[in-house]
Amino acid sequence: MASPDGSGSESFRTRRRRNRARFALAAVLTFILVAVGVLALVFYELRPVSLKIAVGPGGGDDLKLVQALAQSFARDRAAVRLVPLVTGGATPSIEAFRDHKADLAVTRADLDLPADAQAVAVLRKNVVVLWAPSSAGKGKKSIKTITDLAGRRVGVIGRTPANVKLFDIILAESGVAPDKVQKEQFATGQLAEMARDPSLDAFLAVGPLDSKITGEAIAATAKARGEPRFLPVDVGDAIAKKYPIYDSEEIPGSIFSTQPARPEDKVDTVSVNHLIVARQSLSSVTVTKLTRQIFAARQQIAREMPLAGKIEAPDTEKDAALPAHRGAAAFIDGTDRTFMERNSDYIWGLVLLLSGLGSAGAWFRSYLTRDEREAGAKMRDRALAMVAKARKAETLEALDALQHEIDKILRDTLDCYDDGAIEDLEPFSLVLEQFHHAVMDRRAALSASGPGLIPVDPATLPAAHA
C-alpha cells in the first residue's frame, strides 16, 4: 500500500522516527549543556577556596593565631580555608608573598610592601616602647626625654630593619639627628644579654601592649639596671600626619606591671598596624568571604587566645595609607553583594540563552518536519481525491478498500499532527467528512440496486420523449 506521500509507508514512518530521534538528541544535548553551565556556576560559588598565608616566626603568636583561624574554618566547613606557610617573620613573609609563594601574608604595614598589597584585617597594633634606666652610669646624665638620646647608645629589640627605620623617624621628628644615636639590634632570644650590657643607655621595643617579649625585656633591664623611666613620644601626632602609615597612641599606666607600676602613668607613643594583606587581584568575593569568616570566628577564638580579640577592620577610606582590599571593604562597609546581585548578568544571560535556544529548537523541529508537512498536504489531497473515487465505486468491496486506505491516511495525519508538522486539522476534517458522506451515499445506492448490480448514473440515460 502506498504511503500518503507516494513512497512506502514504512519509509515514511522510518523518516518520522529518525526526525523524532534527532530532535530528542538535540533537546537532550541542549539540556545537558545548560545543566552543566548552571552546575559550574553553583560549584564556582560553593567550592571551598584554599589560600596560602605566609606567617612567622614558628612558635610565635602570629602563627598560633593563624593556625587557630585555619582550624576554625576547617571545622565549620567554611568557603575559604587557610593553609599556613611558616616563615622566619614579617619580612620573610612579605618576600614569600612577593614571590607568589603565598596568597596572603601577615606583616607590618611599614615594611616594604608590594605595590599591589592591600589590607584584609588588622590583627593588632604594635606600639613603640622606649625606656631608659632611672639612674645613669657613672659620668652620664640621666635620660628623661628623647632629646637626651643624642650621643647615646640604644638597644633595639628585633632584627627587622623596620624597627630602626621607625626609631630614626621618631628621632628626626623629635629634633635629634638619627646618626647621632647608635643603635644595636638584639634578637628576641638575647634579652638577658641586652639587659646586662652596660654600654646601652636606653632600649626600644615594638610590639603589642601585652607582648611577652616587651614585658620580659622591661623586667630584665629593671633587674639588671634599676627601675625603667619610660620616654614619651610627644611628636606622635606630627608623625601620624607626616607618615600616615603610623598612628599616635597611648601606653596605659601599669600595663607592663602593677607592682611596681610600669609605667606609673600613661605615656604617649606611636603605633603601626600588624595585619593580613592580600593582592589586589585576588577575587573580591573570596576576600569578602574570608573577612566575614575572620570576624565571625574572632570572639570564639578570643576565649582561648586573647590576641584574637584585637582583630580590627582596616581603614576603608580611599586615601588610606594602605588601602583596604575591595572585598574586605565591601564586608566592612556593608556593600557586599548577594549571589543574585553578583551573578545577575549571568542569570539574565542564561534567560536570554534559553529563549534563544527555545527559538532555535522550534526552528530545528520545523526543519526536521518539513517532509512531514509536505506529506500532510499530499495526504489531504489524496483524501480529497478519494471522495470522487467513493462516488464512483462499483462494488461494496471497493468502498471497503477505500475505507481501509482512508484509515491509514488518518493515522498518518494524526501522527504528523502530534509531531507538529500539521498545525490545523480542520481542513482534513472537512475532507474526511465529505468522504464519509460520499461512502454512505454510494453504499446506500449499491445496496438498493441489489447484489452484483451497478446502478446507472441518471445523467447517462437517454432523454425521455415528450
UniProtKB/TrEMBL annotation:
SUPFAM superfamilies recorded: Periplasmic binding protein-like II (SSF53850)
Protein name from the UniProt record: TRAP transporter substrate-binding protein
Keywords carried by this UniProt record: Membrane, Transmembrane, Transmembrane helix
Domain of life: Bacteria
Positions of transmembrane segments: 23-44, 346-364
InterPro entries given in the database record: TRAP_TAXI
Record flagged with keyword Nucleotidyltransferase: no
Keyword Metal-binding annotated: no
Signal peptide (from-to): none
Coiled coil, from the record: none
